[in-house]
């Protein structure tokens, strides 16, 4: 079987499984995902999950804050702080990738009836988990060990901006846009690392992540526009961008945090 054909087959099976299990408790779904799907997909496909990434045209040369919509560029001093704390920044990065995979799993569990959302996010789960493994591999190669997960102040602050008063449907827009924002900010940070780190291998390493996260940012916005009116998405996105800029302003720059 061709590799791409086996990827599509596996994704199709996974999507069918998720639909079949609609109504199953989140805990059971979690066990199925981490106990069955991830070991199976990673053993079958290895950590190279690029073929599972949706093909979204993106001009890398224009991956700037203005294209991503972010209103406050990261302080350029952050790269130099991060460079000095490689073990910490890679540890934080590894957990960010894990959380990105969990967010997609959670969205699929919460909205299994939304075909585009499920079909688009199922391969991203595998891709984000592949990113986590890549970061781990990079750490081991350098003789570094991942530490414990730390509180992610940036994400906690963003979650506080989520409007909780809406119904299940309305909450979807909030969750998709928060996910898009995290992807956009991660992309901007990876871009800084890929352009300004001293070591060439690390610059290349981060360029790969920058490309992926740019695609994810676009994907979350695209999913939002499938289920909500364009104007509604645009309006809420602008509000989130302003709130995010405020959060960035108030968070001190730290070399041991991705955000
Ligand atoms: Fe990622
Ligand atoms: Fe991502």
Could you walk me through the main structural features you see in this protein, from its secondary elements to its overall organization?
With 259 residues, the chain is an all-alpha fold. Helix 5 runs antiparallel to helix 6, helix 6 runs antiparallel to helix 9 and helix 8 crosses helix 10. The site of one fe (ii) ion (FE2) has 6 residues, from helix 5, helix 6 and helix 9.
Q: Helical region count?
A: 10
CATH class: Mainly Alpha
Structural class: mainly alpha
Radius of gyration: 18 Å
CATH H-level homologous superfamily name: Ferritin, core subunit, four-helix bundle
Bound molecules: fe (ii) ion
Give a count of the beta strands, DSSP E runs of length 2 or more. Answer: 0
Could you tell me the strand content as a percent range? under 5%
Helix content: over 70%
- Compressed to H and E, one letter per element, the order equals HHHHHHHHHH
């Amino acid at each position: 079987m061709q590799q791409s054909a086996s990827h599509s087959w596996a994704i199709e099976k996974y999507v069918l499984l998720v639909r079949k299990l609609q109504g199953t408790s989140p805990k059971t779904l979690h066990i199925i995902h981490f106990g069955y799907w991830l070991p199976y997909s990673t053993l079958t496909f290895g950590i190279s999950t690029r073929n599972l990434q949706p093909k979204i045209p993106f001009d890398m040369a224009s991956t700037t804050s203005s294209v991503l919509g972010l209103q406050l560029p990261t302080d350029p001093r952050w790269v130099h702080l991060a460079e000095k704390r490689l073990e910490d920044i890679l540890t934080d990065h590894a957990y960010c990738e894990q959380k990105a995979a969990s967010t997609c799993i959670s969205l699929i569990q919460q909205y299994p009836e939304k075909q585009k959302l499920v079909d688009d996010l199922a391969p991203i789960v595998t891709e984000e988990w592949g990113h986590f493994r890549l970061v781990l591999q990079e750490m081991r190669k350098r003789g570094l060990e991942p530490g414990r997960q730390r509180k992610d102040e940036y994400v906690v602050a963003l979650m506080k901006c989520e409007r909780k008063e809406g119904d299940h449907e309305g909450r979807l827009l909030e969750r998709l846009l928060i996910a898009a924002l995290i992807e956009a900010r991660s992309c901007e940070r990876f871009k800084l690392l890929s352009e300004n780190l001293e070591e060439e291998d690390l610059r290349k390493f981060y360029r790969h992540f920058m490309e992926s996260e740019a695609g994810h940012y676009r994907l979350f916005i695209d999913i939002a526009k499938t289920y909500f009116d364009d104007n509604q998405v645009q309006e809420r996105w602008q509000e989130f961008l302003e709130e995010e800029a405020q959060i960035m302003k108030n968070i001190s720059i730290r070399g041991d945090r991705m955000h």
